[in-house]
Structures are given as structure tokens and as C-alpha cells.
Design brief:
The chain has 149 residues and is an alpha+beta fold. The chain is built from four helices and six strands, in the order αββββαββαα. A hairpin with a 5-residue loop joins β1 and β2.
Length: 149
């Protein structure tokens, strides 16, 4: 029995020593994403035929209305139906987070980026004010008299 106890103690010591000998690096293994509102809408091409396009409102400091998604060489990306547009987004690495249907397809999507790209976007497009801006309230909020300061 004494030998069994010694054996167990020796095994536990090896496990503790092994655990202490391993060094751990704080490697950042998180995934980072850029979010955008996307709309798949019906459109009319220059020749009068109908097609579908993706409108993108990426934020990134822009306040203009959504624009037709373009390829890297500046050409408008056009589809025959909504499913083809959604397949294209998946192919390009966009992940659909939220999907709302109607006569237009309204999608909240995210695209994987590096930490550096996300840091740059946040740094360039985040602003700080000394005085809290007044929040535009809808009718329901105004009736309850919320104050968002």
C-alpha cells in the first residue's frame, strides 16, 4: 500500500512539473469582422432588362446613401435573381447575420478582416464629443420621456 501511495505521489509530481514547464503565449486567435447593411434590390440595366444588384452601406465614415456594390475594377455587380446575389456574398466571404424579407432583401452581414484593418476603421470613424448629442426619439420614446444622456 505504501508503494502505491508513493507511486501516486510520483505521478502527481510529474503532472504538476509537466504543467509548469509548458509556456503559454498570448496569441490572439479571435476573428475580427467588419459589418455592413446590404440590400438585394431589383434594378433596370441600361438595355432595359431587369436584374438584381447589391446595395451596400458599409459605414466607414460615410453618410451617403447606399451604393451599388462594385467589383475591384469598378464594374457594377449584377445578378439574375436574389439567390445568386446571396451566393455571391457567401463566395466573397460575407456572413449573413440577420435576414429580413419583404419586396427587398435587407441583410446585416459581416466580413472577416484582420485586427489591424478593424483597428484602422474604428480609429478613423469613431468620434468623441464633450457634450452628449440629443437622441432623436420616436413617438413611443417621447411619450415615456426618456432622456438618453
Amino acid at each position: 500500500m505504501t508503494k502505491m501511495k508513493l507511486f501516486l505521489v510520483a505521478m502527481l509530481m510529474c503532472m504538476v512539473t509537466n504543467g509548469m514547464a509548458q509556456t503559454t503565449k498570448n496569441v490572439d486567435t479571435r476573428d475580427y469582422y467588419r459589418y455592413a447593411w446590404l440590400w438585394v434590390r431589383i434594378a433596370t440595366k441600361a438595355d432595359g432588362k431587369t436584374c438584381y444588384v447589391i446595395l451596400e452601406s458599409s459605414g466607414l465614415g460615410h453618410i451617403q446613401p447606399p451604393a451599388v456594390m462594385k467589383s475591384k475594377d469598378g464594374k457594377s455587380i449584377v445578378f439574375k435573381n436574389k439567390i445568386d446575389a446571396l451566393n455571391y456574398l457567401e463566395h466573397e466571404g460575407w456572413e449573413i447575420c440577420s435576414h429580413f424579407n419583404g419586396h427587398i432583401t435587407n441583410v446585416l452581414a459581416r466580413h472577416k478582416v484582420t485586427k489591424e484593418e478593424l483597428d484602422k476603421a474604428v480609429k478613423e470613424n469613431t468620434y468623441y464629443e464633450d457634450v452628449a448629442p440629443k437622441v432623436v426619439m420616436n413617438l413611443k420614446d417621447a411619450d415615456v420621456h426618456y432622456d438618453y444622456e
